[in-house]
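Just wondering, does anyone understand these tokens?
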Amino acid sequence: MNGKYITIAPASPFSEEAIHLMEELSKTLKDITGSGGRNSFDPNDVCKERAMFVIARNESGRAIGCGAFRPMDETTAEVKRMYAKEKGVGAGNQILSYLESQAREMGYQVLRLETRKVNETAVSFYLRNGYQIISNYGQYETRTESVCFEKKLSI
């Protein structure tokens, strides 16, 4: 199933498709971790300058995933709401690669993110994509169930 044609483009996190994808993500996360992750995401954060929300679509135009990043400081952005609805088609890799490329173009040098340790699929996904485990940051500093990652973006 690899090699399917996928397009990724910026979108509003308030669109019907985005809301539907993020609701699916929250349900999936709740099943895996006990928390849907909604409290750690404000859609307004990805509508600002130097931020982005994207939707991935399959060849028939159906929304199959999403992802976003928001600024943390001048050189660092945080990846949020990564979700690939269809497994095994490469949507997650393509969304993450697109976000990395866009962040680099916007002048970011580093991407960070958080997931739950129990979400082993996500942990292995980020490790495979060149992210390194770092000390928990910000609101996750004291959260023992969290694991934080960072990737330096090559210029």
In short: The first strand starts at residue 7 and ends at 10. The two ends are 32 Å apart (CA to CA).
